[in-house]
Amino acid sequence: MIPIETLSAFVAVVIVLALTPGPDNLFVLTQSAVSGRLSGIAVTFGLSTGVIFHTIAVALGVAAIFQTSALAFSLLKYAGAAYLLYLAWGAFRAKAAPIGVGGGPKLSYWALYRRGVIMNITNPKVSIFFLSFLPQFVNPQAGPLFPQFIQLGFVFILCTILVFGGIAVLAGTIGEKLGKSASAQSIMNKIAGTVFVGLALKLATTTR
What we know:
- By secondary structure, this protein is an all-alpha fold.
- It has helices spanning 4-19, 23-35, 37-60, 63-68, 70-93, 109-121, 124-133, 145-178, 182-204.
């Protein structure tokens, strides 16, 4: 078991990181504003699920491949950038309709959840971040390393859900008020598309 002092420090750092503007929380904010609170929460759970992948990858040493192989890093980041451009294309083409028309979001919550998973997994910077971040809180004297990595990953997920969920509720509340106007919804869709393009360019130009 990881000492409570170490876990407390870990939680504090993770919350600060989650609040720092970045691709993931911007993604949640945008989806919540465009499609509503529950849609943002669905994306949050998807992004959190991606954390499981990165945690296990670090625990097994797989993430080191993305740090040492330029080809693997490039393939994954370009796949992620292409997916973000696909999302931008969909946002720009979306029809101007108020949020809630038809009794639900434009995409199913399952589709939004998958969107969050893909967004997180296809970002090699997240793998490298976990590779450099998690080991700092692991102590060989505290027992087997693999369970410690899993424990840290679980705590990271809880913190992410807490912070991103708050962002989803706030952005979704504001978005739903604006979304009562079809013209406002059209503008929000264009803003969302622009954000996705920006994230795609940022990811495509990132380096190890």
